[in-house]
Amino acid sequence: MQKSYRIHPAWFVAVIAFVALVGAAGFRATPSVMIRPLHDEFGWSLGTISAAVSVNLLLYGLTAPFAAALMEKFGIRRVIMVALVLVSAGSGLTVFMHQSWQLILCWGVLVGLGTGSMALGFVAVITNRWFVKHRGLVTGVLTAGGAAGNLVFLPVLARLTESQGWRVAALTVAGVALLVVPLVGWKLRDHPAELGLGALGGEFEEPKPIAPAGAARTALRALRQAAKTRPFWLLAGGFAICGATTNGLVGTHFIPAAHDHGMAETTAAGLLALVGFFDIAGTIVSGWLTDRVDSRVLLGVYYFGRGLSLLVLPSLFAATAHPSMVVFILFYGLDWVATVPPTVTLCREYFGASGPVVFGWVFASHQFGAAAAATTAGLLRDQLGTYNAAWYGAGALAILASLLSLMLFAGKRLKPIAPGIGLAPVVSKA
Questions:
Q1: How far is residue 82's CA from residue 279's CA, in Å, rounded to a whole number?
Q2: How many whole angstroms separate alpha carbon 364 and alpha carbon 181?
Q3: How far from 264 is each of 299, 321, 329, CA to CA, in Å?
Q4: Total domains in the fold of the chain
Q5: Looking at beta carbons, which pairs linking 100-108 to residues 24 or more positions away fall under 8 Å?
Q6: Range of 107's domain?
Q7: Would you place residue 426 in the very low, low, confident or very high pLDDT band (cuts 50, 70, 90)?
Q8: What DSSP assignment string belongs to 215-278?
Q9: What is the CATH number of the domain that holds 309?
Q10: Confidence at 427, pLDDT banded by 50, 70, 90
């Protein structure tokens, strides 16, 4: 018999997860306000600095499926606490660096591994374990934590960097990451069965132990099986373009691009923070819609609108934040990660209980796209003296992602062979 709670503990777990995700987003926002200061102090090219950001983005994505599997084996709480310590170490150690490889080690490797463990695969694990009812909505709210992180951290980090220097901003990130550790250790629970109850809206279930193969083999086997299916590649391809057009391009290069047109970096950071503000609303609404509208249709609409807006963006840059740019920021913010709730839902629909681990791999493709865009845009800026080619190319890719999403209507559903391990075609009309 399940225990009775006035407020289901799933909501408290969601709140703690939201706080961790806010922090992770803020930690990842740091490079965008430090590109220009690092270039000025060390003389490193934008391509070199962007390479460090790309390593961060790659590891952020590649860590996600393994982190999801590790959460199954060692528990959510332990993995997130270790991740926060890695972020703190990576950000704090940057104050001692003098060479570009040290930037890659700190920002790229340590912060990439830490934030990757608190990526959207973490969202999939939380919602899959703790929620049956309101699953789409909670996915949207937790995803919006990333937007909230940008909203909270970007303006603060920009002002700290301008007034106190980039080292103070880096140490601030390190300190905040450490502060979140005891909160996670105190309140984050691994599974509702620990409290004698089932997921919100579901029945009590004993936790299913991970297979003896281990977390890494579980993640790799899920990839091997999913990669044999058409839906996986359509989802991964679309999400790679999603990463290229958000974290990789706009998230990394919007501030230096605006600075090229005479806009103050604090003003540009404020605009990017507004993207986070509107993203909160857009992602929550997207989660609500995901519970009601076919996710493939939603993805098609989101990507097509994003593509059109990027094609217009080069004509909007100016020394001041005029109304047309604010309209772009509003639209792009609403669309930024609105793609996540329908993508998580489709991974669950196509891959069943293996959905969180498979989504981790789909998210890895998101970060491959982001890393490629971050480096490519930096190199284009170094060679051409402008970001215009990057904006136009990203707009065309987003329209392609819309077509890939609509092609999912021809995909077959799949079922897991065993909890968290592998997939096999469903022999039915489903």
A1: 28
A2: 25
A3: 34, 10, 17
A4: 1
A5: 100/42, 100/44, 100/48, 100/49, 100/52, 103/38, 103/44, 103/49, 103/52, 104/51, 104/52, 104/55, 107/30, 107/31, 107/52, 107/53, 107/55, 107/56, 108/52, 108/53, 108/54, 108/55, 108/56, 108/59
A6: 9-413
A7: very low
A8: HHHHHHHHHHHHTTSHHHHHHHHHHHHHHIIIIIIIIHHHHHHHHHTT--HHHHHHHHHHHHHH
A9: 1.20.1250.20
A10: very low
341, β-bridge pairs: none
Backbone angles phi, psi at 415, to 5 degrees: -130, 150
Q: Is 158 among the domain residues?
A: yes
Structure pTM?
A: 0.70
Q: Is residue 420 part of a domain?
A: no
Provide the 3-class DSSP secondary structure of residue 417.
strand
Both tokens of residue 17?
Answer: 């997860």
CA atoms within 13 A on the CB side of 348: 20
Q: Burial code of 179-210, b = ≥16 C-beta within 10 A, e = fewer?
A: ebbeebeeebbbbbbeeebbbbebeeeeeeeb
Q: Indicate whether 315 belongs to any domain.
A: yes
Do residues 142 and 21 lie in contact, with contact meaning Cβ atoms separated by under 8 Å?
yes
φ, ψ for residue 412 (rounded to 5)?
A: -95, 150
**Would you say 88 and 177 are in contact if contact means Cβ atoms under 8 Å apart?**
yes
pLDDT digits (tens, 9 = 90+) for 26-79: 777 677 778 888 888 888 887 788 788 788 877 877 887 788 777 877 888 888
> Per-residue pLDDT for 15 more than 90?
no
DSSP string computed for 269-309: HHHHHHHHHHHHHHHHHHHHHHTTS-HHHHHHHHHHHHHHH
Angle at 265 between CA 262 and CA 270, to 5 degrees: 115
Q: What is the 3-state secondary structure (H, E, C) of 111-150?
A: HHHHHHCCCHHHHHHHHHHHECCCHHHHHHHHHHHHHHHH
Rounded CA separation 102/125 (Å): 33
Q: Does 430 fall in a domain? A: no
Q: Which helix (H) or strand (E) holds 424?
A: strand 421-425
Burial class (CB in 10 A: 0-12, 13-18, 19+), 384: exposed
- Please state, in angstroms and rounded to a whole number, the distance separating the CA atoms of residues 387 and 8: 49
Query: Are the CB atoms for 10 and 131 separated by under 8 Å?
Result: yes
